[in-house]
Amino acid sequence: MEGTPVTVESVREVGPGTVALELETPDGFDAAPGQFVLLRAVPWDVADEEVDDDDVVMRHYTLSSPAVDETFELTVGIDPDGDLSPWLADLEGGEIVHIEGPFGTITYERDTDVVAAAGGPGVGPAVAIAEAAHESGHGAVVIYQDDEPAHRDRLETLEEAGANVVLLESDDDDGLADAIETHLEDGQLYAFGFESFVTTVADAIEDAGGDPDEALIENFG
After folding, report:
1. Contact 33, 66 (CB under 8 A)
2. How many domains does the chain have?
3. The CATH number of the domain where 86 resides is what?
4. Could you tell me the maximum CA-CA distance found in the chain, to the nearest angstrom?
5. Co-location of 195 and 147 in the same domain
6. 21 in Cβ contact with 73 (< 8 Å)
7. Do 120 and 212 sit in the same domain of this protein?
8. Which residue range forms the structural domain that includes residue 164?
9. Against a cut of 0.85, is the pTM above it?
10. Which InterPro entries has this protein been placed in (predicted)?
11. What is the spatial order of strands in the sheet that 188-193 belongs to?
């Protein structure tokens, strides 16, 4: 199997239908918040059988930890009918998966205040960037649109530390636009989520008099 083998250190539930995978950091792996990896695995284990290319399932996941010193985290939304995520959610630690990367040019270098907007699974990189900003002495805003929020504990910790956290229902696009307008000048704006979400964010930036091209936007497709 291609990629670098890494050990799954732990898997924990972080929200409805959502788990966080903590993986060992391989030698030479250096990633910044905002980047992603390609994870390869053979779900449901083929035991001693020879692994065929058709057995390997690959998915991209964006880092959800602010650092990658000894371990790093990926946040995984569980699709009950998916080929990979239910298997990942059932892991207990000690298993081996393979990764490639990091990939992506959207990064946070701990050098400025941030406004991190997240739709659904975009909360992983958004909370990681906000935590990295706080750890570096910078201000952070998280705007998160989801009916069933994940990483509530980390968001509450950020809020207690002085970050501004805005939680919105998934159909509250007016609230999303208002939050973008309110916090447009509060830091470098990042947006992570599916196409409909990031398009709404870009439109809100423009409507508020900003330049969407200056935002760092990751479209999950």
Report:
1. yes
2. 2
3. 2.40.30.10
4. 60
5. yes
6. yes
7. yes
8. 114-219
9. yes
10. Cbr1-like_FAD-bd_dom, FAD-bd_FR_type, FNR_nucleotide-bd, MRET, Riboflavin_synthase-like_b-brl
11. 164-168, 140-145, 114-119, 188-193, 216-219
